[in-house]
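Here is an idea for our session: we take a single protein and study its fold together. To get us started, please write out a protein record for me. Once you have written the record down, we can walk along the chain together.
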Amino acid sequence: MNTLNKEKSVVVKSIFTIIFGIGGLLCVFPFIWMLSTSFKGVEDVFTFPIEWIPSNPTLAAYERVFSGDFPFLLFLRNSVFVTTMAMIGTFFSCTLAGYAFSKIKFFGRNKLFLLMLSSAMIPGIVTMLPTFMIYRQLGLVGTLVPLWLPFFLGGTFGVMIMRQNMVSIPEELIESARIDGANHPQIYWHIALPSVKPAIATLLFMYFLWSWNDYERPLLYLQGNRQLFTLPFAVQNFANENLQNIPAIMASNVVSITIVIIMFIFCQKYFVQSVMSSGIKG
């Protein structure tokens, strides 16, 4: 009987492995096509059947991106600057707020946290116009500041993640540090942050993606100032201006997604630790 159950288990696992493998391949195909197309000439893009490995590979698309009229490096620099500032703001605002909500006892702490969580139910489209009017009154429209400043104010989702992870830090550890004379900034920096490194890596990567791929806010705040375009917005503009040069569009997308992949590789081990620790806590 046990042998029969084991055989059924192996069959079920094999079926699910095949299903998930096929699903994974289907998800990868668009990226393979993008990479392949970036090495093709304009006239080779629509050949059928699809040449997954170009018969006449060329770097013309990458040359067009980096040395043409399209100031790709300027847009890349803008994106790197905005995303770096966004990650710095996310790190300090979310971890500080998470520490305060989890380890500092003050009047109305839980009610204030619930109030903050309730703000997540407000659609972004509702606050878009008031936020734009505030930035315009401050004279920040037409600059890069509105793209990274909100990250210094603490995102609801990020604060919730850090609060939930810091709650699991043993109170005995905090009390021991207080007995040794440590204050809250010291406890935050030397005890709380090292204890939640996987959660911080996950937090930063998620907000990195949101900032790096942001298209809506550059469209709203940059006011067509080409010198301030970030990469997603610039690529879309590039696509509109050079609709027929699909290899160049794919080449710019390859560069953009390569940076995301590199960021993921550096954070991958922390993702695994975060999932494992979440399972243990559960």
